[in-house]
Amino acid sequence: MSASLFRLYMKVGGLAKNDATTAAAHSAHVANVMQDGYRRWFEGVTASLGETIHIVQDLGRIRSPSDIVGLQRVWLQSASARTAENVKILIDLSQKLVAATTTQGVTTAPALLESPASESPVTKPPTIEAG
After folding, report:
1. Distance CA 15, CA 117 (A)
2. Which residues contact 120 (CB under 8 A, 6 or more apart)?
3. Number of H-type helices and E-type strands within the chain
4. Which residues contact 18 (CB under 8 A, 6 or more apart)?
5. Angle at which helices 65-101 and 2-59 pack, to 10 degrees?
6. Which of 92, 102, 104, 100 is nearest to 32 (CA)?
7. Which of 24, 31, 91, 110 holds its CA 20 to 30 A away from the CA of 99?
8. Which helix (H) or strand (E) holds 1?
């Protein structure tokens, strides 16, 4: 009995070690995906600031109503392109996070608890009759 209990402890200990290693690898992968998302977001913010500075500089050069309309068009095109890029980045990041957090091949504890029939015979519990 103690030998089979020891084997059970060894199996469960191995499962815990494998699960911890797997969890650490998943966490590292998710952290890398998030870091990439933050990097891409920061690049977008930096580009947005550059575009805003350029538009503000052009604002000082306006001499006619047609210049205002042209600057508005440039600003609107820039803002819509930036929004489309941000949506693409968000979708890409979401897909990567879903892929990173989806686990496959998870080992279940009941599979480890199974033992050959020769090692642990199944016995019926005694029945108690009211008398």
Report:
1. 22
2. 4
3. 3, 0
4. 107
5. 180
6. 100
7. 110
8. none
- pTM of the prediction? 0.56
The residue to which tokens 């990097």 are assigned: 39
The series of mean pLDDT values per 10 residues for the chain, 131 residues long, is 65 68 79 88 90 90 92 92 91 87 51 46 60 52
Q: Do 93 and 43 touch, CB atoms closer than 8 A?
A: no
For residue 6, give Cα distances in angstroms to 11, 17, 18, 35, 67.
9, 16, 18, 43, 83
How far is it, in rounded angstroms, from Cα 36 to Cα 30? Answer: 10
Alpha carbon distances (Å) from 85 to 11, 47, 82, 97: 49, 11, 5, 18
What is the C-alpha to C-alpha distance for residues 33 and 100, in angstroms, rounded to an integer? 8
What's the CA gap between 124 and 112, in Å, rounded? 23
Q: Could you give the CA distance from residue 126 to residue 68 in angstroms, rounded to a whole number?
A: 93
Compute the half-sphere exposure of residue 19: CA atoms within 13 Å on the CB side of its CA.
10
